[in-house]
Structure formats: C-alpha cells, structure tokens
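Known limitations

Files may contain more than one protein. Parsers should not assume a single record per file. Below, a two-record file is shown to illustrate correct handling: read the sequence, read the token line, then continue until end of file.
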Amino acid sequence: MSVTSPKTTAPSAAPGLRTGSLGTADISFFVVSAAAPLTVMAGVAPIAIALGGIGAPAGYLLAGLTLAVFAVGFTTMSRHVTGGGAFYAYITQGLGRPAGIGAALLAMIGYNGMEIGVYGLLGSATQDTVHALFGADIPWLPVSLAGLLLIWYGGFRSIDFGAKVLGVLLVAETGILVLLAGGVLLKGGAHGLSAASFAPDNVLVPGTAAVLAFAFAAFTGFESTVIYRREARDPDRTVPRATYIAVAFLGLFYAFTVWIAIQSFGDAAVVKAAGSDPAGLFFTAITTFVGGWAADLMHVLIVTSVIASLLAFHNAINRYGLALADEGVLPRAWGRVHPRHRSPYVAGAAQTVLGAAVVIGFWAAGADPYNQLLLWVNTPGMVGLMALQLLAALAVPFFFRRITHTEGVVRTVVAPVAATLLLAAAIWLVVTHIDLFTGASPLVNTLLIAVSPAVFVLGLALAQRLKRSRPEVYEKFGQ
C-alpha cells in the first residue's frame, strides 16, 4: 500500500516595487515637481531680487552650475551602487557604515522636514487664493489635513500614476510662467529689454551671497533621481539623464524667469517693487502684461504647485523608508509593498501619520502655518539635505579608490572634490543667512541649525549600538 504525499505549493514571493515603470521624463517630473518652480519663483525670487538687486538671475545660474558639478560624480557612482538607499548607500560605501547610518537618519529627517513643513504652505497658499478670488477667509488646518489625505492616496497608487499626475501639474505651473514671459517679451518689458542682470558690476555685489543662499535652497530635492533606480527603465542611463535634465532645467528656467520679472518692472524700479510688495510682484507683472484672469489662474496654480511638491517628496520618503526597512533598521512592516499598486504603502501610511501629528501639533500651539510650520520645519530639512549632498560628494573619491573601475579621473576625483568645496560654501551661505529663511530669533535659528548635526551624531551612536547588538544588520547595511 502506497501513500501519496499531499502536494505543497511554495509561497509566492512578496511583491516588490514595479520595475521598469519610469522613463527619463517620469523621473524628471518627480524631481522638478519637488522643487515647486512656480512657488519658488512667485514666493521667494522677489526676496532674492530685493536683497541682491538685478543681478539675482546670475545667482540661480551659479547654483545650477555647482550642482551640475556635483551630479558628475554622483551619477558616475550611481552606476556602481544599485540599491534603493540613495544618499546613505553612497555615503556608506564611500565613508563607512557609521557615516552611512548617520546619513540615513539625516535623510529621513531632511526629506520629512521638506515635506511636512510644506503642508503649512498648502494651508496658507489656499487661504490666500480663496481670499484673492472670492474675498472669503478659511481656516488653514482643514486644508492641510485634506492635503495629507490626498498625498497619501497619490503615494498609495502606483508610481506611474504619480508620474502622470506630476507631469500634468508641472506643465501647468511652468506654463503660467512661460505665459508671463511671452507677454513681457512681446511687449518689450517695462522700458525695453536689458541684459544688465548678467553684467559683472551687478552680479559681484554684497547681496549676491544672500541670492546664492536662496538659489541653492530652490534646488532642494533634485538628487532624488537615484531613489527611483529600482523602478526605472535602463537605470544606468535613465537616472543620470534625469539628474542632468533636472539641474539644467531648474537652473536655466529659474534664471530666465527671474530675469523676466526684472524686465516687467525695469532695472531701475524692480528692486523697490520687490522690497515693498514681494508677495505681489509676480501677480502685478502678469496682470500688467497678460491680464487679471492670468493672475487669478496663477493663484490657483500655486496651490497645485505645492501639491505636486508634496507628492514628489512623499514618494521619495516612502522609498527611503522601504530601503531602511529592507536594511533592518526600520520595522520590517515598513518594507511591505502593495500587491496591486506595487507601492510602499505601509511606509506611506506611517509618513502620513507623522505629518498629521506635526501639523496638528503646530495648530494646537497656535502657530502660523507659513512663518512657523513651513519655515521652522522646512529649514532644518533643507540644511540636512544639503549636508547629505556634501557627504555624498565627499564619498565619491573614497569609493572609487577602493574598487577597480574604468571611470575617468575627472568624474571620480576632480568633479567630486570641486563639488565638496562648492557645497561646503553653499551650506555656509545658507547657515550665515538663516534669518532670511526663518525670520526667527537667534535662539530659534541656532536650534534649527543644530538639528542636522545632532541627528547625524545620533546616527553615529546608533551605528555603534547596531554593531554591538545586531552585528548581522550592521555588516549588511548599505550594501
């Protein structure tokens, strides 16, 4: 008598991210949308003009050139580091595990700071838009909470869904600025078109330091291209192309748009106009050269620009959370991927809960959504991401010294070292002009600046703890 064993079915593999979903354009949309070009131009560029004068456009070009130099070594290393950890994986393999673990914590704080603070901007921008269009005043908290739910849903859906949404929103927000540019160019500006913004006498002035600080901040998030490596088509080509496209587009578009704003008032009048009404500068310009309807549309598109930025950062944060869960540093549950949408939905839910807690906490404390929630949460996030760029640039030559490769010395040594020096100077500019970003007291500014080094040091301590208590996690980290 024979006995037949029952058939057993091997468990299916857990779902992973949807590979091959994103092309160069898709990744570029994520990166450029995170920078929120319309919001940066209408909300921040007038302050740069007021502080730096008509030479402000050159500051954005200089910042773009610096980050292009950084991208040379960064994208070269991306061909050799293929995991999903982006910054911290690069830093781990170049500077060692303790620095990499410190960078991982800094990345989570940096990206969360950049996103969560913007919910305050969403609330205040929507308030301004509703008041401008309808004369009504609305509370900001319900708007921010609705935004949290909307962004959660966008991150919950598939990555290609997010790319399509961002593509539409980005075309809309850049389109309104192109419309302004067309009106100014066709009518010849306020007093004719001038290239004086790029003359050395107008660029090499004391206020340029402040312009550069604002300009570097305007590029924050451009490096997130590598976060999408696992979902990219032909990542060895797609990721570098998207990085260079993002840097080139932002640098040229920012400089051109600021120059257009200057032409709309004239070299002699724009600094006074920007100083007296920075929030209204772009709205006045587009009303004059296009029409009042375009100013109303710009109000609406600023809100959609903020939403696009939030969705882009949310997707980046989710993938960092997924990578750290795979490393064993964050709870394993954060590494779950939705079986149908192939999104890191648990990490997205956790990030949304954190965002809601911060937003409600600031509201309960009676804080202003712009002056406190946005500026106080965004600023340490911005400094943290710039510090990560610096560490990643520094990691490149150390990484290539340790491996056998065929990359040229310009890509592996010269460009990364130059980028390290330039980024160090950029961080110094931001830190020494921190009051321009926050409008806060010296004590608050000191605390905001201290967040990044404190988090990094905490990461170093965590690395030592992991080395002692969980050596298997420590040894595999960032590999």
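...continuing to the second record:
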Amino acid sequence: MSLVVHDPTVEGSTIECEITPPRHLRRFFSGEPFRVEYDVDLEGLPTEIATIPALAHVCPVAWANGVDVEVSAVDETFLQSLEEVREVLGRMYPSFIEGGEIRVGEVVDTRADRSPDEFDDSGLLFSGGIDSVASYVRQREETPTLISIQGWVVGVEQDDRWEGAMTHIDTFAADRGLDVQNVRSNMLSCLDMPMLQAHYKRYVDGAWYSSVGHGIGLVALCAPLSHALGLGTIHIASSHTDEFDQPWGSHPSIDDNVRWTYTSGNHDGYVLSRQKKVELIADYAETEAETFPIRTCVHADRGGNCNECEKCYRTMVGMVLAGLDPNRFGYEMDERTFHEVREGFERRTFVMDDHTVFHWRDIQDHVRYDREFPVDSATEFFQWLETVDIDSITESATEATHRKVIRGVARNIPYPVYNSLYPVYGSLKKRI
C-alpha cells in the first residue's frame, strides 16, 4: 500500500495537507494534518507547489520502509529532485533506506508559466547562530530575505521563546535593511518523532530529523514562499566540512539537489569549518564596527543563550579564540567560564557525539597566540585545551548506558522534541 499525500487546502497564508499512511506506518505519524503558515498571502498557489513541503517531510519516512508515496500533482522539477535525494539518502544509509516510488497523477512543468527573470532574489534560512550569520556575511551582497522557521529548534507551542528569538532576528535584519519572513510548521509533530527515534536510533548519530530529514525538509518549506516572492535561491548554512565523514541530513549532495520551478537550494559555507566561520564573523564585525547578538542555545527560555550548556561554552570559546568578546554578542562570560569548561571536560559531564567532537577538534586546530584575547585567563585555557585528548574523554564520558542514550538524542534537535524523547528513552533503558 502507498502513503497518500492528499490535495492541500490553501487558506490565506496557511497550507494544510492530510496524510494517510498505510497501516504499518501509522506508528510514525501522529495523525495531525501537515500544516505550515507563512507571512504572505498564498491564495491561488498551485497544488503542485503547495504539496512540496509535505512531500519533503513524509518521503524520507516512506523511503525508510520501501513504501511508495501517492500524490495527485507535483512540480516536475521537484519530482526529479525527490528521486535524486532518495538516491543520496540510500547511499548515506544503506542499512535502512529501502527506496520507494512517487506515484503522481499529474506531473506539472511550472516553469511553463513563469520566467527565470521572476526569480532573481534569494532567501537565507536564518536562526541567528554562527552558521547562518556566517552565511549572511558570505551572501550579504544579495541582500537575502531572512527566513526563520518556528517548529524546528523552537517548537510551534513555544511562542514566548519564539518571540524572544525573533526580537534578535528582527533587529539584525532591520539594521541591515533586510526583509524577514516567518514560517511556522508542525512538521515535527505531524510525524511521530519519539517513535521514529526509537525505531531508527541504532542507525543514526543524532535524531531522525537532524540525521535524515532536515536538509530537504527545511529547504522545501520555502517553496510556497519562493513562488510568492520570486526567490531563486534558498541558502541553508552548512554544519560541517568535507572532513566530517559521518552521514547527516543536510549535505551538499542533498541541499543542492532540492529544487522546483526556477528555485534551488544552496548548501552554503561547506568550505568553512565552524571556527573559520567564527573568524569570518569576527572580520565582518571589525570591518563594519558592529556588534549584534548571536543566538546558538536551544535551552534558554526567551530565545537568548543560557551560557552554561556545552554548545554555549563551545561557542564562547571559539569566539574568544577569534578575538571576539562574547559579552558584546549576546553571552555572559568571564575567566570563571574557562574553569567551568575545563571542569566539564575533566568530569566528563559534556554530552559528546561525533558532531561536538568534530567542532572541539576544530577549535584545537586553530589555537594561536598572536593576538590579544578579550577575556582574562584565555591564554592559560588554550594552552590546556591543546593538550586535551578529546577521543579519550568522549569514550569515557559515554560508557554508561544513560550517556549512550543521551548521545543518541541530545544532538542539535528541537528542545521540545528532546524533552519528549528523554522519558521515552528512560523507559526503554529500564526494559533492556
């Protein structure tokens, strides 16, 4: 049997699409219709474009089970894109991506009614973190529209956190004369994320969406927006470089192949490691004589930074190394912070997966002393950090069963999803 993506309804700025999975896939779906809201009026949006966001999110689940997907109409270019991304994910995850066809009632060439000249603007998926700010710096000559998605790192029910995050993003955009578009979607509650994670955790280093679905999913969420605004490129910031050899849901071979009509995704910044991106931001801030908040934390209640999680610590350390004072960019840091970071390593309290290890090694590789650091005790800290055997710390920190469980879910996933997964894993652990 096929998984059916029903014809979407478009009302004002909202698209809603019912999903009917076959019986054996129902456990991976919550029963909610797929829903996404935009800041622009979408009345008259063609069905073949309106279905793209839902298709992008359900297809990886179908492919992981060898199930066909049935849809009444789809953009011809996007259909080709789906087939290419399916092949890429199959090579990344041969142990569970089984394949599956897209069964389409009508394949529509939407380019026939549009001109490429209509798509001469660009959009940038923007969270205000290191990766997306570095991508803005790289693409700023395009004056890209900043696209922020609620339902990913910040859940659709977390309006207070979203309001806090958008305060920073709106200010960043206003200071640079940029437009901002908000996208709000239940893509992570339409799917049953705890069940997906429980079933596929043995195959992936992070969560399902991060490891498999977020590249195609986040870029494709922008399809209706690009159709309305004429965005020919959707930039999505890279997480790694080609030195990272683990499979991941956002990769040039995925993101660059997501396209429809005259719009295509661009996996931006793949040539730059995270520390190189921090240095790029430091150069930009110095050249423009600007300061602005950088938001990387998934724990802070009001969209800022908690200043005490591993990611906050890692970001602050990288900023100091690049000559940036974190206190001028949305963090609170002094020499005591270095002691807290060192303690986190020595007591093995940081959750360290392949991704965090990759980024800490990157910081180690870029340690240099030919500049004045903006925070006291930095020199002594970096002299110590150069000696740290991260592999040894990671191995000993993840020996316990509970640490192995956390490592499988605590990667860069939305905090509300993490909260729902943790008790699931607690109960699973008790049964082992």
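Parsers that stop after the first record will miss the second one. For reference, the second record is described as follows. Residues 399-432 have pLDDT under 50 and may be disordered.
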